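Bumping with the actual sequence this time:
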Amino acid sequence: MRTGLPLLKVPAPLRTRALAAVALGLVLGASPAPLRATEQGTDDPAKAQAAVPADADALTPEEQKLLEQRDENLTELRAAANDAEAAQKALESLESDLAGLQSEQAQLAARLEETAERRGEIDRRVADGEARLTALNERQMVLRRSLIDRRAVLAEVLAGLQRIGRDPPPALLISPDDALSSVRSAILLGAVVPEIRSETEALARDLEELAQLRKSIATERNELAEALEENDRESERLAALVTEKLALQEESERRLELEHQRAALLQEKSGELEEVIASLEAEIARQREAALAARRAEEERRQRITEQLERAHKLAMAKLPEKNRIAPAYAFSALKGTLYYPARGETLRYFGAADGSGHGLSGELLATGQGAVVTAPVDGWVVYAGRFRSYGHTLIIDAGDGYHLVLAGLDRISVADGQFVLAGEPVATMGPTRMAGAAALTLATDKPTLYIEFRKDGQAVDPRPWWRGTASQGRASNDT
């Protein structure tokens, strides 16, 4: 996809007659000044501005437009370069952050593995403690069953001991029955009590040992439970950190991809802008070369005119016949008050009068007779002879010294482009009706009207200072 401004095409050269009319400013005004020759353009944005000519007033509208477009593209190219530099820095920062996140993620993964190993060790310790507790519980159940099995005997012995303790038999005065019972009790106690004492002591020891083990196992279980809780909290925290780091990594990768795409677009845009600028520079260079060639051609033409004037002066000094002269004998600016009107008639409007369109008239309007002969007011070269818009047949004479004379509203022209004519030489005839120009349409006459305009360096000037007498006197022959 192409971006930036479209390339401009240099307009094709106009026809010779149109160029002459534009150059003389008959309708469009002053001719464009020649361009100053400059160096070829450059693709370097830092040096492109230096390629603009210092005399900007000498630029043609087309070249000025090209320069403005080039400057706009240069500004856009600089902005794209700045954006590309910022994007590159952002890419480097994102890549650094991404590498840091990956390193932290690896460290968290290692810590998770360590936590998992600690969790496995704690699980093994809990399993061992539960196994020991189970064995102790089984041993306790064995002892309890032994005590339960021997509960009846122990009950009789304990009951007898209790009775003896509450009501001991007399030692001397006893009845036979009491003596027999006492002997039996003594025999029973003597046989049972040592065994019960031994078993009781063993049972007490077992019970005390069992209580200590249960206390130790309970303490160890509490410690293991606390360790498990802490391990679970650490696992949850690490898992949350890993999730957060993964989210940050995904976001960084997404931003990194966007920055890569942006950098690629900026690079593509910069390349297109460089191509556009190069094309504009080439176009400007071609226009400068064309302007330089035109200026050289103009200088050569002026040189030829100067040489012709010098030859004409030499011929005039040698008193050669007028018909052999090929250049004006005098500078046009020195002929004020000496020129005759090109045809006899009546001046209807003078220079500066309203032209019917809200503007001042750039010349004079002269009412003539039908078929009147029109003569050249001054020596000069015919630079244009032909029809021009609504002015009818138009004749333009280069009088030298930067002056041009325009005669419009003619019916027929008897001279050709490039021909040198002498003052008073017949050059055209008038028709039967007036011309169709805006200024002539507002006139109250139907007579043929001749439009006369004097121009100095492309600007219309008042012709009255050059006339000798009035239009009614006219001139019918060459009396220069």
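The tokens above came from a reply further down the thread. Residues 176-317 form the longest helix (142 residues).
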